[in-house]
Specification:
The complex is a heterodimer of chains A (about 110) and B (about 110). Chain A has no helices and eleven strands. Chain A is an all-beta fold. The N and C termini of chain B lie far apart (about 40 Å). Chains A and B meet through strand 5 and strand 10 of A and strand 6 and strand 10 of B.
Chain lengths: ~110, ~110
């Protein structure tokens, strides 16, 4: 069974630029999550999708972050414009329901 | 809001030493508890989980954890660590349909 796929693996941008991350969940997993993991901390949930609907986006900074999950499969997370404090690893995870979450390799974002 | 506290940020052990990593959570209701591990250069992987039943849970690679409801704890143990156990360990909790909350992680370094 293929795992959660993410791209790119690394991204370096300057502040005020925009960036987008892509995630392909495990086949058949209805729930998809985006997390932000800042160095030295545990992952923090940004947004949770159930199929293509948003379940929880209470911790998503909506003035600069956006996410979509078209057709209930792949998802993209966008930051526009980026700030220095957005430097982090962005993790995508998926699960069948509210069961165990399976994580992708993450995208390491550096904002200069 | 629920929170997760991991007692040690860094642990250094010699091979064959016993391991216990502490985890406490704040939520008083029914909870699901997880330990995830991140080996160097790899993505987060599930080590073990507790949903209900026997409070002593066995996971992969000889790890186990004990859920003590009265202490709001879910400590991770391994009787004899190996060099290959060097990794970062995250405790996480959710309740029902609530989002998964992670601790800050414990970096374990096992010296050969």
């Amino acid at each position: 069974e293929a795992g959660v796929a993410q791209s790119p693996r690394y991204k370096i941008i300057e502040k005020r630029q925009s960036v987008a991350f892509w995630c392909n969940p495990i086949s058949g997993h209805a729930t998809l999550y985006w997390y932000q993991q800042i160095l030295g901390q545990g992952p923090k949930l940004l947004i949770q999708f159930q199929n293509n609907g948003v379940v929880d986006d209470s911790q998503l900074p909506k003035d600069r972050f956006s996410a979509e999950r078209l057709k209930g499969v792949d998802s993209t997370l966008k930051i526009q414009p980026a700030k220095l404090e957005d430097s982090a690893v962005y993790l995508c995870a998926s699960s069948k329901s509210t069961d165990t979450q399976y994580f992708g390799p993450g995208t390491r974002l550096t904002v200069l | 809001a629920q929170s997760v506290s991991q007692h040690n940020h860094h642990v250094i052990l010699s091979e064959a030493a016993s391991l216990e990593l502490g985890c406490n959570y704040s939520y008083g209701g029914t909870v699901n508890l997880f330990w995830y591990v991140q080996y160097p250069g790899q993505h987060l992987q599930l080590l073990l989980k507790y949903f209900s039943g026997d409070p002593l849970v066995k996971g992969i690679k000889g790890f186990e954890a004990e859920f003590i409801k009265s202490k709001f704890s879910f400590n991770l143990r391994k009787p004899s660590v190996q060099w290959s156990d060097t990794a970062e360990y995250f405790c996480a909790v959710n309740s029902g349909y609530s989002t998964l909350t992670f601790g800050k992680g414990t970096m374990l370094l096992v010296s050969p």
